[in-house]
Amino acid sequence: MRFVKLGKVRWTSHRDVARMWERALRRVSLPVAHTGGFTPRPKVSFGLALPTGHESLAEYLDVELDGDTPDVASLPARLTAALPAGIDVTAAVVADRGSSLQESVTSCSWEVEAVGAPVDEVEALVAEALAASSLVVTRERKGTAVTDDVRPAILAARVVGTPPCLADGYVDHDPGALVVAELGVHPRSLRPAEFLRALSPHLREGHVRRTHQWIERDGARWEPLPLGATDAPHAKVACA
Q1: 166 and 183 in one domain?
Q2: What is the four-CA torsion angle of 166, 170, 175, 181, rounded to 10 degrees?
Q3: Boundaries of domain holding 140
Q4: Are residues 143 and 216 in the same domain?
Q5: What distance in Å separates the CA atoms of residue 210 and residue 77, rounded to the nearest whole number?
Q6: What's the burial of 228, exposed, middle or buried (CB within 10 Å: 0-12/13-18/19+)?
Q7: N or C: which end of the chain has fewer CB within 10 A?
Q8: Same domain flag for 36 and 89
């Protein structure tokens, strides 16, 4: 299944979103398969974890069923009604996946706002970064500071202006340049905040939204579950 996470629910952690999904699956009486042992758990697998505070138009969930396959076409509406506002299911299919979502995804596309930063300044920083052979930054890994060259993880980036409006009126900062970037996830994901620090240590992220997760095989790039324009009620674009 593919779903969006938009608005105030973006402050919900990945763990809490998983609990929301478990409750929703029970409410719609899906025959979800469970693990064995003393504490059986539903066989549910999420894609790449979304950092708390970030929105997304492209989250994914695999659910293993134990029983007859339900009416898949009706699942998006049924599950959306059972989930909190801001989490809308936009597509569902029967899948025969050979590997996990986390292993399959190779990159993600993001909208990343640099708080208060002028467009021309960020355009120059993006151009400088793309022309660089390496971008060495220090970031934390399991509580330890590690120095990495993150340039290979910046697959594409461009400034698309500033967001004249953002959903729900929750913005509490000066608008800044909005960058659309594709960032790699292997061998380690490059987070949007780390991407901005690679451009300049003075840049700070504001609005952040994941728009795509990509799988690349045999030179072709595609989404785990392709989707055109969505009619999910909360799936509004960041800028009007």
Answers
A1: yes
A2: -60
A3: 106-222
A4: yes
A5: 22
A6: exposed
A7: C
A8: yes
